[in-house]
Design goal:
The structure is a homodimer. By secondary structure, chain A is mainly α. Chain A is built from 8 helices and 2 strands. The radius of gyration of chain A is 19 Å and the shape is globular.
Amino acid sequence: MKNFSFSRRDLLVGAGKLAAGAAVLSLGAGGAAREAWGYGYSSDFKYAKLDLDEVGQIAYENYFKRWCTSTVLAGLVEPLRKKVGGSWKDFPIDAYRWGHGGLAGWGALCGTLPGAGIVIGLVTRDTDTAEAMVNDLAFYYSYTELPSYTPKKILKAEIHQMTIAKTPVCHISVGRWMASEGVGFLTPERAERCARLSANIAMEAARMLNEWVEGKYKPRHRPLFNLVENGITSQNNCIDCHGQNVPAPPEEYQVLDK
Amino acid sequence: MKNFSFSRRDLLVGAGKLAAGAAVLSLGAGGAAREAWGYGYSSDFKYAKLDLDEVGQIAYENYFKRWCTSTVLAGLVEPLRKKVGGSWKDFPIDAYRWGHGGLAGWGALCGTLPGAGIVIGLVTRDTDTAEAMVNDLAFYYSYTELPSYTPKKILKAEIHQMTIAKTPVCHISVGRWMASEGVGFLTPERAERCARLSANIAMEAARMLNEWVEGKYKPRHRPLFNLVENGITSQNNCIDCHGQNVPAPPEEYQVLDK
């Protein structure tokens, strides 16, 4: 077996953009060398600063018919159609509806996140930037009390609880909220919660993109932070699922504490 | 609290397409009535029957630079560019790279699945069909021994194990395989596994789309099966994570066994 170890010092964000992630990958991520890290690509989709309240309102209203992925897309794409036009005009918002409920109801990745990611990827034209922004959004989703969005006019139900998901996984995120609020999944309350959450995520994506389009976006979190810290694609709350038995990587993969 | 109960008989697939899912939703899915279930949308993206070996080969080769989401997209989009052209010519495959590793390395939804879903959604122009196909793909991903793809020429490493994921969640899926093979994440073996898995998923998506374009696609699984059976967006192996303490929905939501 190959020996593969690197020190935490190697992972400090150093000179150059996203050096930590690049360091990880150049040190032997399955032989994927530095050139596999980030690169640009062309895209016809433009961005202009959006009004966050408008984004949130459109997302909230759309949820009950379109569900999370197409709803976050609507919140971003419909204003972009008006402000920027171009390729957004033909963008088929409903072609992504299968993302709902963690992928066709499988409870995996909350559909709000790929919805936002799709717009982020299309406008930033750089894998480093898109990666950093989606990573920041996943941290926001996982560690903010949500839903915090307050609609001007409630469309479905009164709800009371906000929860911290600690995960981008739909099943765990919605389950935690359902237990807190005391309702089942197929209820108006749960639908209301997901509608407001969709508004929150669409608004946070727009907030970052608004910074980015003015050249002011700086990643809040290190890209690939979880992978590097935990030795596997992961969340950051291992004990919540694994209890005392958190699997350890095999010997050949070690992060040395020096 | 509202009482909300329905019998399993209501959920049998009856006359009409996807009646089970429609029955669930019309019976009170948070007030989302039948019209919220399925509808069509327009899209400029066309499909033509693809050669599965070509799809698999292109996906496998692309993985090491593009990672799972953009890789499955490449396996489908590059042949479609040649065969069909049109809107595929400008399709920015790399704009979706953030989907890798379960969303920017968070280990949530395996990036192969939204990669396939994006093409499925764009060509089928009907939310019912896209939903059913993505659901079938999630069942295939979760319950097939993978990766079964055998490259003509191995690009990264010899690997030996195939595993059944029982989940579309990257962390669990790759972790199970890593434990079986005895390797860490940042190894050539794990990269080889994800490259072959990407080929498998791209090929399965193409297989279904090939049936669909000839009018022969029939869903193998009931859409929203998991949600209906388990009372929450979910996988189907509750005990694996919850052990003896599978949370029960509150009283107001019951599936009656009659």
